[in-house]
Amino acid sequence: MEDADGSFRMASRKFRREDTVVEIAASYGAAIGGGGFFVIAGPCSVETEAQICAIAREIKALGAQALRGGAFKPRSSPYSFQGLGADGLTMLLKARAASGLPVVSEIMEASQLPLFAEVDVIQVGARNMQNFELLRELGKSGKPVLLKRGLSSTIREWLMSAEHIMAGGNPNVILCERGIRTFETATRSTLDLSAIPVVKELSHLPILADPSHATGCARYVESMALAAAAAGADGLLIEVHNDPGAALCDGPQSITPAGFGRLRAKAEALRAALRDS
After folding, report:
1. Cα separation of 202 and 218, whole Å?
2. Which of 36, 186, 235, 266 is 20 to 30 A (C-alpha) from 23?
3. For residues 247 and 43, is the Cβ–Cβ distance under 8 A?
4. Phi-psi region of 81 (alpha: psi -120 to 50; beta: other; left: phi over 0)
5. Containing H/E element for 134?
6. Per-residue pLDDT reduced to its tens digit, 226-260
7. The pLDDT value given to residue 6
8. DSSP state of 151
9. How far apart are the first and last CA of the chain?
């Protein structure tokens, strides 16, 4: 699949041959791309200050390089937990101070941008992948953007959304494959592993995989994470909760810190084996 009409020029491998490395927090020396393997972990939602700080310290000790936590939550049901909003972002920043991990959180709309001034990476969720007003404003911000693939979006549409951010002057885009909607119901979505090498061929942007949202089931997260690493992903986005059964959001797809530690070790062993092969 070539970009015949030039619709994603700046995101294209034709525009830039070498891989882009996105510096996500200079003060922490954190960067995504360029041959490294970057793992972002944490709970779906920030629930309390004690919870997010405790998880941050645990995953840092187990090899996580950034902390994820949702303050604003797009939920299918209006009766589900919607997040703590600005208070959740404040707690997330306190967890950054406690752990030394840069933080990633999802934005819902352009009007929230001032609240994200201190967040290291702004996540655009699957439902907002084609919210072009939001993408244009993020293009002006210069802040690293983690852009998830839409539920039913093609790779071309995904890269065109990245182009909206880059055309606004922001080259700091990180792609995230989080599963797409198919006819299969055994998992929450279908993790499109083929998207990883395809994106690597078409674009210079780094790409992560999110097996937690793709499968919706903690039992499958490790195997899909390892498959994504083998497919060439630049890193992973993993949901980790210290008590998944009591989580206010997406507990069934969250693994424990101990499970995360095992996954992290296996991913490193796999990458080492592939380098040596």
Report:
1. 31
2. 266
3. yes
4. beta
5. helix 132-141
6. 999 999 999 999 999 999 999 988 899 999 999 99
7. 62
8. T
9. 29
Neighbours of 76 (CB within 10 A): 6
pTM over 0.85: yes
Helix (H, G, I), strand (E, B) or coil at 61: helix
Distance CA 76, CA 144 (A): 27
Asked if the model's pLDDT at residue 184 lies above 90, the reply is yes
Contact 152, 127 (CB under 8 A): no
Q: Which residues, at least 6 apart from 269, have a Cβ–Cβ distance to it below 8 Å?
A: none
CA distance 266 to 259: 11
- Tell me the C-alpha distance between 258 and 39, whole Å: 15
Tell me: the pLDDT tens digits for 126-138?
A: 999 999 999 999 9
Tally of CA atoms within 13 A in the half-sphere of 249 that contains its CB: 24
Stretch 32-59: mean pLDDT, rounded? 96
Cα separation, 99 vs 61, in Å, equals 9
Beta bridge partners of 209: 177, 236
For residue 57, give the H/E element and its range. helix 49-61
